[in-house]
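Team,

Forwarding the record for the chain on the shared tracking sheet. I've put the sequence and predicted structure together so nobody has to dig through attachments.
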Amino acid sequence: MQMISPVEFFRSLPPKKCTECGENIVEQAESYLMECDRCLSKRDE
């Protein structure tokens, strides 16, 4: 079994999708959010 580098492992992960609207989430490092900024801002209203 060939080992891949951690960098390659994380690059190969699919983008995280918003649980509300299904759009891809642009993440910052160590982000645990499951909703995009647009859906989070709607929640505050």
